[in-house]
Design goal:
Elements: E1 2-10, H1 42-53, E2 57-61, H2 62-69, H3 76-80, H4 82-89, E3 92-95, E4 107-110, H5 114-122, E5 128-132, H6 135-143, E6 149-155, E7 175-182, E8 188-194
Parallel strand pairs: 1-5, 1-6, 2-3, 2-5, 3-4
Antiparallel strand pairs: 6-8, 7-8
């Protein structure tokens, strides 16, 4: 399986508290939650649903796992939604050292060396091991070169506060653009594949200036 991630974030890279209200996630004094409500048109919602439906399995960090388990895993209306059906029917893997007894059916707690455990999952036959939300986990996966493809849904808003997907001092990663689209509400969907480290210009790089050629 390949590890794929899907993350909703703002133009300034914030992914914290995108859900229902300002009360969803107030860590570190964050008070601008709920910024993604109403973002995206029907085509974007369809794209998100179809993404969940093609997953062979899901991988979660603790916080997103608990949020999803208490909503998609328990609320009847959400369980009946195609996303809920996909989540409840597929195997789920949890990367956590603090949650030792996951309550959502068909969940496996990954213990021991996480990099080894995920590498073993990647070696299994199948399509996608999907990661939704789970910011700390996604950052760790990227730092350990374990992400095969990442989808960013960028909502046209700047928050100026909140936890970002790409932190200061994180790894540098070159990306190949696989797909790009923008919906009628201005939400952009970018699909990338990590492509090693970026190439940087050096002091010996020369730039050809317009009109600088010899006569």
């Amino acid at each position: 399986m390949k590890v794929t991630t899907m993350t909703q974030l703002t133009v300034d890279g914030v992914m914290q508290g995108n859900g229902g209200s300002t009360e969803e996630d107030r860590r570190s004094g964050f008070v601008r939650g709920g910024w993604a409500m109403g973002a995206g048109d029907d085509e974007t919602f369809s794209f998100i649903t179809q993404t969940y439906q093609r997953a062979d399995a899901f991988l979660f960090g603790r916080r997103t796992y608990e949020l999803f388990a208490g909503s998609w895993g328990e609320i009847a209306e959400m369980r009946a939604h195609p996303i809920g059906v996909a989540l409840n029917e597929a195997p789920k893997y949890l990367a956590s050292t603090t949650l030792t007894e996951p309550g959502w059916a068909d969940t496996t707690l990954l213990s021991g060396d996480l990099a080894v455990a995920i590498s073993e999952l990647k070696a299994k036959p199948g399509g996608e091991l999907q990661v939704h939300g789970s910011g700390a986990l996604v950052r760790w996966l990227l730092a350990n070169d374990l992400v095969d493809e990442m989808t960013l849904l960028i909502v046209p808003v700047v928050l100026g506060q909140g936890a970002r997907l790409f932190p200061d001092g994180g790894p540098d990663i070159a990306l190949d653009l696989v797909d790009s689209r923008v919906d009628s509400k201005g939400v952009t969907i970018q699909v990338y594949r990590p492509a090693g480290r970026p190439r940087y210009a050096t002091s010996t790089t020369t730039w050809r200036r317009e009109g600088s050629g010899s006569a």
